[in-house]
Amino acid sequence: MSMTQHAEPAVTTPPAPGPKETDGRTSERPLALRLLARPEVGVFLGAAAVYVFFLVAAPPVRDGASMANILYGSSTIGIMALPVALLMIGGEFDLSAGVAVITSALTAAMLSYQLTMNVWVGVIVALIVSLGIGFLNGWLVVKTGLPSFLITLGSFLILQGVNLAVTKLVTGNVATDDISDMDGFSQAKKIFASSFDVGGVQVKITIVWWLVFAAIATWVLLRTKYGNWIFAVGGNKESARAVGVPVAFTKISLFMLVGFGAWFIGMHQLFSFNTVQSGEGVGQELIYISAAVIGGCLLTGGAGSAIGPVFGAFMFGMVQQGIVYAGWNPDWFKAFLGVMLLGAVMINLWVQRTATRR
Fold this sequence. Notes:
Elements: H1 31-36, H2 39-57, H3 64-89, H4 97-114, H5 119-144, H6 148-171, H7 185-192, E1 195-198, E2 201-204, H8 205-223, H9 225-235, H10 237-242, H11 247-273, H12 284-294, H13 307-325, H14 333-356
Antiparallel strand pairs: 1-2
Helix pairs in contact: 2-13, 2-14, 3-8, 3-9, 3-11, 3-12, 3-13, 4-5, 4-6, 4-11, 5-6, 5-11, 7-11, 8-9, 9-11, 12-13, 12-14
């Protein structure tokens, strides 16, 4: 007699869940470290510290009108710092940005006054000139392969000399003539240099433009293909070219964006003061670059944001006006800026090392 054996299915008990095996590359970092990795976090903390410091050291800062003046000073730096920051993220920088502002203003003023034209003709021609300067800088950088430091240093010297020489030749003076009584002046002033009332405080229109441009720049960097191109060419232009990024177009267009910023601030200066001094603008390029660096943009390119330079420009405006409101010698302003720049660079370095530490 044969017996049939039926094997019972084996019952296996799943092992108790244990801790996930992770290495430093795949483990999720704490939220605090991920926030520290953002380039604008360090400058935000620095801006907050500077703001609190002057609130205590300079009581007039607490007044609404004083804060409006601080934001106004910050906006005139910040509007230019934004395109300069985008250019730095793209791996280049522009030493001619400061004098290019004056070139734009001089072009609009002299063309309108000397040829007795509507000021809008001068404004449009100044825009074309500013974009042309940016295009030439970018084209020379791309075609020659020379560092942008050398190309734009040459542009800086050329524009500085042209500003002085042409203004003296055309007007017989170092400043342009007053254009406040010319056709179109009041309309242009409303766009570039007007003020509006907020709770009894006069707020300059440049503050609004500053925030609008910052929002646009942030959207471009984070949400568009062009923003990806900027980071790519700044990180490694050869690798970017290999994957189809139009390196030449991106770099030239970034220089032209700096030209646009120079035009806008130039128009603001012209329609704020009705005249322009041809020797101004020297040294401002360092302020714009410093605001971008303090805002987390690397000189080596490939990293940064548009929000960081907003806080960087605010720090500059805060210090510039805060020293006055505190009753200190304004000659210390540049020394404060130097300390801020070194401090911001070291803080950003510490933040990056802390954020990437496993």
